[in-house]
């Protein structure tokens, strides 16, 4: 079955950068959607950024200009470069993948990783 494994999370000071990675295996559709989501304590899980197989990207307003999603298709790896991190970015970050749709931001993703914790100190 499809497997996703996130890595790169950890503690970081306010203003610092962090890069998350997501290795995707056993998923071969030619057109797919992948994305990053986060669960902030006390809030519902929310979308952070998505990218389709052609490289089209969408971002949540809260991270636009600070976070960048990218992918290395040869390595089947998804990335999230996070800059200017703030305490409100503290969350468990998840990657997800599914077949494509009209917009990867609206897809109901079926396959998820277990998450990686990002904790930003004040």
What brief labels describe this structure?
4-stranded antiparallel beta sheet; globular; 7-stranded mixed beta sheet; 11 strands; 122 residues; mainly beta
Question: Summarize this, please?
Answer:
With 122 residues, the protein is mainly β. It has strands at 3-7, 10-13, 18-25, 32-39, 46-52, 57-59, 67-72, 77-82, 91-99, 111-112, 116-121.
Description:
The chain is an all-beta fold and 122 residues long. Strands 2, 4, 5, 6, 9, 10 and 11 form a 7-stranded mixed beta sheet that branches. A 4-stranded antiparallel beta sheet has the order 1-3-8-7, with no helix packed on it. β5 and β6 form a beta hairpin. It is globular and about 40 Å long. It starts with a strand and ends with a strand. The mean pLDDT is 94.
Write the layout of secondary structure elements.
Elements lengths: L2 E5 L2 E4 L4 E8 L6 E8 L6 E7 L4 E3 L7 E6 L4 E6 L8 E9 L11 E2 L3 E6 L1
Parallel strand pairs: 2-11
Antiparallel strand pairs: 1-3, 3-8, 4-5, 4-9, 5-6, 7-8, 9-10, 9-11
Largest sheet data: 7 strands, mixed
Instruction: Say how many strands there are.
Output: 11
Mean pLDDT across the residues is 94
- Our estimate of the beta-strand percent is over 45%
**Helix content class:** under 10%
Radius of gyration: 13 Å
Distance between the termini: 40 Å
Assembly type of the chains comes to single chain
- The residue ranges in which pLDDT falls below 50 over 5 or more consecutive positions are none
Number of helices: 0
Q: Structural class of the helices, strands and pairings?
A: mainly beta
């Amino acid at each position: 079955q499809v497997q996703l494994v996130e890595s790169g999370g950890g503690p970081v000071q306010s203003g610092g950068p962090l890069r998350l990675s997501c290795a995707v295996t056993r998923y071969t559709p030619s057109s797919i959607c992948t994305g990053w989501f986060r669960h902030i304590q006390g809030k519902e899980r929310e979308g952070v950024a998505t990218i389709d197989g052609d490289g089209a990207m969408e971002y949540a307003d809260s991270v636009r200009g600070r976070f960048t999603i990218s992918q290395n298709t040869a390595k089947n790896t998804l990335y999230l470069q996070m800059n200017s991190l703030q305490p409100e970015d503290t969350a468990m970050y998840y990657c997800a993948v599914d077949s494509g749709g009209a917009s990867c931001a609206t897809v109901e993703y079926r396959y998820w990783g277990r998450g990686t914790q990002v904790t930003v100190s004040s």
